[in-house]
Amino acid sequence: MSLFFTFLLLFSSLLPSLNALTYRYYDHTCPNLESIIAREVHLATVNDKTVPAALLRMHFHDCFIRGCDGSVLLDSKGKNKAEKDGPPNISLHAFYVIDKAKKAIESACPGVVSCADILALAARDAVVVSGGPHWEVPKGRKDGRISKANETIQLPFPTFNFSQLQQSFSQRGLSIQDLVALSGGHTLGFAHCSSFQNRIHNFNSTVDIDPLLQPSFAASLQSICPAHNKVKNAGSPMDSTTTVFDNAYFKLLLQGRSIFSSDQSLLSTPYSKALVSKFANEQRHFEKAFVKSMVKMSRIAGAGEEVRLNCRVVR
Ligand code: HEM
Ligand SMILES: *[C@@H]1O[C@H](CO)[C@@H](O)[C@H](O)[C@H]1NC(C)=O
Ligand SMILES: *[C@@H]1O[C@H](CO)[C@@H](O)[C@H](O)[C@H]1NC(C)=O
Ligand SMILES: *[C@@H]1O[C@H](CO)[C@@H](O)[C@H](O)[C@H]1NC(C)=O
Ligand SMILES: *[C@@H]1O[C@H](CO)[C@@H](O)[C@H](O)[C@H]1NC(C)=O
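# 2-acetamido-2-deoxy-beta-D-glucopyranose complex -> structure
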């Protein structure tokens, strides 16, 4: 009997580190969690159409640095510069939406829901409010205590080629199918000139423009982003329907109308190109693959051990 309890104790002390996420994690401790978050995402989107794209990217960024542990949400403190103040933070915004949701959740069920889970759910709701699919999000992540600006260089760059992207994803347990499906996140949002500058000025020593760009599209990107760009925050929508979660991104990609070199590179291997065509042909195929890959990405384990009370500061 005492041996049994010793085992039980040992086992339960190991449980948090296993990071086993479950779909019904908050069923008893915070039953209204999901409707609270859905409401906040909806309200924020009514006010600002750029919110869904920001939340989706924020979750991706969170999961790729230190696992999905809410590290992207922490503010810099003292001498520590946090992820959100690191170099590729140009597109990060809408942190206030997470703050508002957290506040509402803390008053409904204090101290139980992690910020990492709130962000994972908000990213799902961002897709839903944009007309995309709904899916169940596994929950039970814990919040991390570390966020370092210099670690954001571990995010994939928009200049990456296919093998660099594949490596970045496989280091996190994600496949080529995940890479292609998740790149479809670029159906939402906006890119600044600096992120695709490489394709339209000094592409290499012999050509100025990436020859894989459709010429008229390249010309329009160049006119938005001249070589010596003086317009602050200039840039391009990611696809033709930036607030709608659809497969236009894949259709445009096949026409030479993608924004980043990383997008373009998805056409550079037969397997990934076939996936792009499949997703371009059938919205349903894209949605199914995207959902599967989002759940997988959202399971990238972090080393968090706490539930923050304020998503911007550790406990
Ligand atoms: C495959 C590797 C990826 C690269 C290299 C990449 C790169 C980028 C870059 C450079 C930007 C624009 C930043 C700016 O100029 O403002 C961006 C925006 C965005 N990315 Fe990605 N990304 C990748 C994967 C993903 C994934 C997996 C998702 C989510 C599933 C995602 C969702 C977004 C969204 C929604 C935006 C628009 C953000 C906004 O408008 O606020 N990206 N990405
Ligand atoms: C991005 O980082 C700069 C400093 O490096 C900071 O001033 C700015 O507020 C950050 N942007 C966001 C959205 O956090
Ligand atoms: C970030 O900086 C810390 C020191 O502040 C260093 O130990 C760490 O290796 C750096 N990480 C990266 C990815 O450069
Ligand atoms: C991708 O880029 C890396 C780093 O620049 C380079 O070593 C590699 O040869 C490139 N791969 C392809 C297929 O172009
Ligand atoms: C520049 O890019 C073009 C088109 O991809 C290619 O044909 C050419 O070999 C490249 N030149 C150099 C020097 O890399």
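# post-check
Residues 204-207, 211 surround 2-acetamido-2-deoxy-beta-D-glucopyranose (ligand 5) (CB under 6 Å).
The chain is about 45% helix and 0% strand.
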